2-oxoglutarate and iron-dependent oxygenase domain containing 2 (Cyprinodon variegatus), 338 residues
Amino acid sequence: MSNEADRKSKFYSCSCFLTDNFFLEDFRLHVRFVSEQQFRLDYQPLLKRLGCITEQQFGDVLSKISQEVDRRRRLCEASAERSAAIKSTYQPLHPHVYHLQESYLNAEFKQIVEFCRSGAACEAGLLGLLEEAGAPRVYRLPVFERKFCQELVEELEHFELSSAPKGRPNTMNNYGILLNELGFDDGFITPLRELYLQPLASLLYPDCGGRCLDSHKAFVVKYALKEDLDLSYHYDNAEVTLNVSLGKEFSDGNLFFGDMRQVPLSETECTEVEHRVTEGLLHRGQHMHGALPISRGQRWNLIVWMRASQERNKLCPMCNRRPSLVEGGGFAEGFTKA
Ligand SMILES: [Fe+2]
């Protein structure tokens, strides 16, 4: 069996993906939906306070959730169809950016990773080489060379302008690109994760699955005036996240970090973290965070959600329950069959 076929048969989704964790954009609210009865009981009073007053308005919310459930059911199939259409019709502007090369990476980043791979590798030594970004266990890394960032953004803009079908990263970002559908997984994101990010995560986050990251979901999000400006407070469907600023020119739009998601918001103090072009922020996926609005320009970010099936098979990070597995395509949600 080829690696690709092996991977396809190995990764599963948690059934919570179909019914839990909806984001109601109109009310900027994350909700859980199991049945209409449960949803009315849990959220109708809160939604009323947020302006969803009439039965008609509540019906609109229910219909949006039901459309989203349908969309998620069709997601795998639709994604495979889009990948195939992109492969057969889309002509890349910069074909070389699909294959990770050492020359794309910042020299300091390569040295840090070299240390992590060496016999001398230890957490204390690595912390001496890294800059903590102001929030606990959030690290700033100079990941890419500027020229590569420019070419990648050019490639993504070229794709956006093409007639190829486009899937969107998640319900919180309306503008962005799923990198697996565009063909970045095998030649770029998988080697980036396995050869460069895994050695770092092993030392920094052994308690969060950092030693056994075995899949990922990678996407690019775009913020611009008149499009998405910011990103509300959330946690990622990941054990470890890398978020790299690719450009272009923008003002404001800092990230902010709170506490781990188990800590109530009332006990949380948030810290702002500047995001500089070519640099990445590495953090635990369950570390709550968001992005403040930009006030000028365009901001493109590469996000790699790295997953450890060993961790998530025990407890789904999205619903906090032991997952009941449903089959998914590609890396799906990063669970493996027991
Ligand atoms: Fe995030």
Remarks:
- The first strand starts at residue 11 and ends at 14.
- Residues 4-9 have pLDDT under 50 and may be disordered.
- The chain has two domains: 3-17+97-336, 21-89.
- The radius of gyration is 20 Å.
